[in-house]
Amino acid sequence: MMGKVRNFSLQFKISSIYIVTNLLVVMVNIFLIIGINSMSGRLDMVYQDNRHLNDFSDIINALQDDMTDYLNVKTSDSLENYYRSEQLCRNMAADLNEEVTGRSFDRMERNIRHMTERYLEEVAKTIESKRGRNVEKYRLHYENATRMYGYIDTYLSNLNMEQFRSNSERYSELQQRFRLFEAVSVIAIILVMISNVCIIISFVGALIRPLKKLSSQADEVAKGNFEIDLLPVESQDEVGVVTGAFNSMVVSIGRYIERIRESMEAERALKERELLMEGHLKDARLKYLQAQINPHFLFNTLNAGAQLAMMESADRTYDYIQKVAQFYRYNMKKSEETVTVAEEVEMVDSYIYILNVRFAGDIHYEKHIDESLLYTEMPGMILQPIVENCVNHGIREMGDRGVILLSLYEKEGRVCISVKDNGVGMSEEIIDKVMSGTYREEDMASGGNGVGMDNVISRMRLFTGNENVMTVQSRGKDMGTEVCLYLERYGQAPGSSGEASCGASEWEER
Amino acid sequence: MTRRKALKIIKNRKQLHAGTEAPERKLSGLTFLPVFLTTVCILFTVFMAGYILWFYTGSFQEETAGSIYDRYYIMITREGKSVFWQSVYQGAYERALQENVYVDWLGNERFWDYSVEEQMEIAIASGVDGIIVTASEEEGMTDLIDRADAAGIPVVTLYGDNTQSKRCSFVGVGSYNLGREYGRQALRIMRERLTGTRETQMMVEEGENLGETETGDRENVVLGTAGGKDMAAEWKEVEVGSPDRPVRVTLLVNSYANSMDQNILYSGIQDTIEQERGDTAVALSLLSVDDTNAFSVEESIRDIFMGGDIPDILICLNELNTTCAYQAVVDYNKVGEVSILGHYVSDTIINAIDRNVIYATVDIDTAQMGGFCIDALQEYHDLGYTSQYFTADISLISKDNVDEYLRREEPENDG
Prior knowledge:
The complex is a heterodimer of chains A (510) and B (415).
Chain A (H helix, E strand, L loop, with lengths): L1 H5 L3 H36 L2 H26 L2 H20 L8 H28 L3 H88 L15 H55 L2 H17 L3 H20 L3 E3 H18 L5 E6 L7 E3 L3 H13 L7 E9 L2 E8 L6 H9 L16 H12 L5 E5 L6 E8 L7 H14 L1
Parallel strand pairs in A: 2-4
Antiparallel strand pairs in A: 1-3, 4-5, 5-7, 6-7
Chain B lengths: L2 H15 L11 H35 L7 E6 L6 H16 L2 E5 L10 H10 L4 E4 L5 H12 L4 E4 L10 E4 L2 H21 L1 E3 L18 E2 L1 E2 L8 H8 L8 E8 L4 H18 L5 E8 L6 H11 L6 E3 L3 H13 L7 E5 L3 H8 L3 E7 L1 H18 L5 E3 L2 E5 L3 H13 L1
Parallel strand pairs in B: 1-2, 1-3, 3-4, 4-5, 5-14, 9-10, 9-11, 11-12, 12-13
Antiparallel strand pairs in B: 6-8, 13-15
């Protein structure tokens, strides 16, 4: 039942509330009107009995008068009047009460009825005797009738008086009741009004409650909170439909958000894969490059070249080929191993030699080495790429004025390897990029062995377990660049650091 | 998005897909209130309707009150308002109700102005089922009773008989026995006056034994002075009881009442006094009281005290006479000189006995009397005949038992 009621439309519900409350008012009013009507009717009827009795009294009077009149004048008119009154009187007497009850009125009425019958008999006998001109008889009957008439009259006036008295009492009683009824009516109307107000407030409240909940939930959603409980759909009215739609909307929005999240995750995974692929590609390319070079063939070739140069007494050629062979061999062997600073310095020596042979001794190469630090361990293939950068970016365009200074010294308990050039220098911006590893050389494959600065920094950091492994300094354009590498020192005697710094400052002065 | 949020959304989605139906809702206070209010309002409206209906039917019932009776009798008496007749009527009324008969008393207020004969005429004309009337031996009454009988209305004469008529029964007290009792009481008064002592005696209540009243042990109690006079001394002084100054005993009779009954009663008194007076000379006289007019009785009785020979003992045969005589004795300062033997019991009479103004009174079982009337009429209706005479019980109330009587009356009055 309640469920059915819930499914009615909002309009129907609101209309029902108003109809029900109005019906209550109307019903109470109808009852009051019925009560008032019945009571006023009863008030009207209070003296009805008295009126009847008066009528009856009048008729009896008329009959007595008519009889007397006939006895006096004996006209046909008076006889006619007598008959009419007699008939009326008989009819009215027949309406009087016949039963003997506990009520004195009833018994008096009964007596009056019987006496009236006797009286009518006497009157009839009187008239008959008069018509028969029996003077003695009609006199006697007339006297009897008149005496009877007197009794009836007394009875009637007694009854009338008693009834009037009782009716007056009843009238005042009815009036009191009427007043009571008035009071009850006023209370009833007030109570119905109050209860109607209560009904309307409570019912409308019950109707509006889901709307309030809905609005507060909507407010929550508007603030961006989708973590709300779904509102229960209590009815199938308009509010219920809106609630249902709201629920669907909240769920749909949640679902869309979830979908977007999923697609974003997929995109990220894709990107990661792409990056991985790039790394693999690089690896593959490297491996490919490495695979292309057959070291044995290269070294055999170079050895053959060296032997040929020796047989032809071309010492310098021999040296050059030997250095080249040494350089590549080192490159092949040491790229993944831990080496000593000495080996790295030797590698740099070979590299500079090869470059000087290639570029006819353009590069001035100087070393300030603290011999005690030469056996410090470090990753392989570190110094050569730094020197290569110095050559390629620092001093390539300077011709024979280019100087590279390699220093090995101790500084603040750490081993410092400094590579300094007097080339074009670097802007702060580029230094930052290099240090953060975001600097990309336009063409990695064009020169060098493909080992970039970011690779160098990464390996140094991995090797030392320290973030602070390299500094790049440049005083500005055409003021040169200094790259310092920092390594942990293992049991080296102090003192050589001062020499190294001294050397560096000397070179600077020049 | 956190895992919690995702779970919430999934839960919501499940709930949404599960259907649009709301979860089972309990009738919370807020839901229950409107229903409760509506019910209360409807109940209230129904209550209102009930109230108005009650109003309706209540008044209706009031109009149709009273049951219907099988028969209707009318009682006609000479006096309207005396306690005696009211008591008789009450007895008749209560007995009648048991028989589903209603009895009306015409002498009650409405027809005060009409004579008994006129009331008889009214009753006959009203076509009642029976008439109870205080008759007299007059011819007019005989005619009326015969007329009623001719009209099929049985008549019971009450207290006063009309032996010549065709009345079906008479209900009264045994006049001769009553007379003997009055005589005996008169003698007792004489003895007490002459000796100056007071006798206590037990009255046997039953009517048949009335004549055999036992005289109890004489107590030699010196009578107190009444009205400041020592009656015994006074009587001795003027030799009351001697042939020159006999004790004057006057019987008040109603001029209109049944002379036959009064005669029987008178002879009862006379016989008793003659038999038991001894040497004492007693002059018994009849004094007729005029009761033809409304207020003539009181005047008649006062006339007695205005005259020369004031009786020593005054015997009254009805309540009105007794009350009037008592008042006259008090008014004329004859307390102690005139002893009154009363008739019937009213508050006034009882108080008078208590104060020694009335010597004694005869109490008639009025309820029984009224009941006999109804019984006679009913019997006549049912069987066609009935007993000719019904005699009601009488009892004597004097100073000896008036206290007991007062005690018995008080709770009734309180109730």
